[in-house]
Amino acid sequence: MYVAVKGGERAIENAHAWLAEERRGDKSIAELGIAQIREQMKLAVDRVMAEGSLYDPDLAALAIKQARGDLIEAIFLIRAYRTTLPRFGASQPVDTGAMACDRRISATFKDLPGGQVLGPTFDYTHRLLDFKLAADGEVPKAPQRDAAAGDVPHVTDFLNREGLIEEAPQDDTDPPDLTREPLEVPADRALRLQALARADEGFTLGLAYSTQRGYARNHAFVGELRIGAVSVEMDIPELGFAIEIGEVALTECETVNQFKGSKTEPPQFTRGYGLVFGQTERKAISMALVDRALRWEELGEDDVGAPAQDAEFVLYHADNIQATGFLEHIKLPHYVDFQSELELVRKLRCEAGADQAQEAAE
Amino acid sequence: MKEAFDEDAPRQRWLSLMAKAPEGRVEALLAAAGVRPAFTWLRAPEIGSTMVRGRAGGTGAPFNLGEMTVTRCSLTLETGEVGHAYVQGRRKACVEAVALVDALMQTAAADRLRTTVLEPLRDELQAAKDTRAAKAAATKVEFFTMVRGED
After folding, report:
1. What is the DSSP letter of B142?
2. Is B92 on the interface with A (CB under 8 A)?
3. What is the pLDDT of residues B28-49, one digit of tens each?
4. Residue A61 distance to chain B (closest CA, Å)
């Protein structure tokens, strides 16, 4: 039987009109501007850029406003917008060694060249609500000190004199791109890193935590965590040379992981890598742990059947837009599907009833 | 980042500098310089994206990190010089100004633009960068060892 599904237009229009009104909230309260969101909800903006996979703070702030603060909805809006943009090209790989670091810490080496720079961190705060923020308060100026000039070297660069840490030799293979070709497994590390960089923070965190709790434990230390700005360079065909086309804020996490050696590799420290748009350190650390867990095969480790080792499981469930799209579609009208299921159950019950009547009669 | 615009690859330097200017700044500096030549578009301002790449482990094989918005344009002055612009973000007015400066830097107006647009911009960006670095430096941990008084 066909069930008519026309007739919702008026209801939908009215629902969206009410949505717009609810988005605005109480009109006696000042409306939020995009610049206010960009400047004061910066870490939400950073998350939307990272998982939306498009670096543009103004667009991310607009998406957050439009989505009423629902960050996955905002990420959805950014992903949809992204598909409308013509691609001018790809940048040269960013040089995180030349990052202008706001923050740079190592949990493994106390006295590293360049020092432990805390930056604007929540660490060491007491996590007590600050009621001064509820009142309009002047913010005191952050103290300044003379900074040393020059780039801050990566911890692994100077640590590896003994050769105890796995190297990451330079390679210029053109990487696969999951926005151009559907993601398929087996996926090489470049493809996994792309998927993880835009993966849901919560999902990545949960998987990373599972490795710490013993599901493919890989004994990770944060060798280095750095947050700051890097220049983006791109070759410009009409000029015939590369220029910097802008600057992005990134969070980079490098783990060093205890490794007893395997059939193919000597005992050494291995590495996991996280690189994410914006100030997003929880995500970057999580990414590094999951990256390391997924490398079990190339390092000759055993597959212990842990979720974080299963590339197909991780990569196919890490994208919150794919996940939410499929999950949320089940709330949309399925009247016809359900009608056929209903008919089927009725028929089965009818047959079962007939069988029972038959048995009783015998 | 102390760009010297006469040394190696000067065009690369000024285009890189202007791409990192805050929104509206290149337009404002160009307007203040009072130079506004006529031009025709070779490519009208166009918004698109660039795929930003990183390297596994910071130094290894490249991977695609995510895209960024970019605006570009190309124009030609009546005197024939061609200017190009590629700038982060969605900034059509900005790329027009950047391409104009790029073209004008190839004319007799170069010295004037160097002192009225490029050098002030370079100094502003350097100052902003220095301030941020100084704030970071103030959060550097100074470890000290307690004297244990064993002798």
Report:
1. -
2. no
3. 999 999 988 999 999 999 999 9
4. 13
